[in-house]
Amino acid sequence: MRIVTILLFAGLSCAMAQAQEHNLSAKYVAPSDPLVAAKLAQWKQLKFGLLMHWGTYSQWGIVESWSLCPEDENWCIRRGPFANDWFAYKKAYEGLQQQFNPVLFNPDKWADAAATAGMKYMVFTTKHHDGFCMFDSKYTDYRITHSSSPFSTHPKANVAKEVFDAFRKKGFMIGAYFSKPDWHTPDYWWRYFPPKDRNVSYNPAKYPERWNAYKTFTHNQMLELATGYGPLDIFWLDGGWVRPKHSIDTAVEWQRTIPYDQDIDIPAIAAKVRQHQPGMLFVDRTVPGEYENYATPEQSVPNQYLPYPWESCMTLGNSWSHVPNDEYKPARKVIHLLTTIVSRNGSLLLNVGPRPDGEWDSIAYQRLQQIGSWMQQNGSAIYATEADPQLPSAGSWVFTKKTNEVFAIYQVPENETAMPATVLIPYTPKPTITAVQLLGSTKKLSFTVTEKGIVVNIPKSLVAAPPNAWAWVFQIVAP
Length: 479
Known about the structure:
Largest sheet: 7 strands, parallel
CATH superfamily of the largest domain: Glycosidases
Radius of gyration: 23 Å
Number of domains: 2
Distance between the termini: 37 Å
Organism: Phnomibacter ginsenosidimutans
Strand content: 15-25%
Protein name: alpha-L-fucosidase
Structural class: alpha/beta
Pfam family, one: Alpha_L_fucos
Strand order of the largest sheet: 7-6-5-4-3-9-8
Signal peptide: 1-19
Mean pLDDT: 94
Low-confidence stretches: 1-20
CATH architecture of the largest domain: Alpha-Beta Barrel
Enzyme class: hydrolase
Number of helices: 11
């Protein structure tokens, strides 16, 4: 088992969508299972994925689950007629099961849009912290397929299965988001001890029978997903406070507040799951060790190259879940994020929150189409590329590479609409280069290698009409 210890200085940005700071673990453990290692290598080639947060919370257009959490934090604010009484609020929130009826649900349309955007893998919320299951779990009535849900009679009522099947048909790698904490089951938030925060409401060491029941419940639900939902590639486990006590990093502020050992025995469930899904990746977020197969900084991009697998999970809008009148990032910003992340050895998992009727906002489709037009032209600079800390990262330039190619990516500022007559790429190749090509153009480019970099002469036709408005990619070919 190979362990790499790294000092990390990447800060986390504050954003409306951020419900918990997700630090980068200080230690990365490479997988020892060759099937897991092979799956991880496959995932690393994909670079761009889709995350979807969807549950009954979209009915109210509020933050996912967190309004149930009795913490005095800005992401836990309750609103509406029940806001001043937590018990009444929780009852009303859980009553959304009887209202949530996404009759416009069409996962094939989502899969088409994601494929058009150039996304290659996906992660879907099978269960968030509130405990509501978007799959047909026999271990709880709090699920979309229960008879109390109006959607239960719909032919696509088993939402997670329909989503996975639709994306699998498009060739996507399939990921199941699963919350380790479950705020609905009394084996986590025991009614005898009302919760004070996000953590288990009792001391598991004092009440081991109840905690063991919770572990069994969690394992059973994960095994349901692993055995009844087709080939899965990723278990993306959220809720980092549910963890062994010994794994708490006291240098991280939010981890210092974890009061109890909340070990649900991930090694045991991983072994069971991998009997059915060989090589399945486990992403036990922020818990260092062999079950955090890649790191997941949230709503942030590390400010440097990281020498291990990682993924920035970020929102297309400002919220993880659907909220009315959300502000969606422009295509330029997403493309710049993607190219920066890939140049630092990462992947981008971009979130879209479906509406309560089962559709996406039209602007989400528009954004993915715009991103896809860029990816269709420039995807060779993204997919199956490598990052190299020896390559420069200067100003608006970022770089990726393949065996005998370097891709110099210029992130075009919003106010820059024309290409200059000459472009200086701040990269001095060691071997002799044979060609420089602007992706999206068939024009032959002349160039000169200088001490400061490669000076490329741009034809007049391209000066006036660049191949796209967001990021220009120069392919530098060596023999």
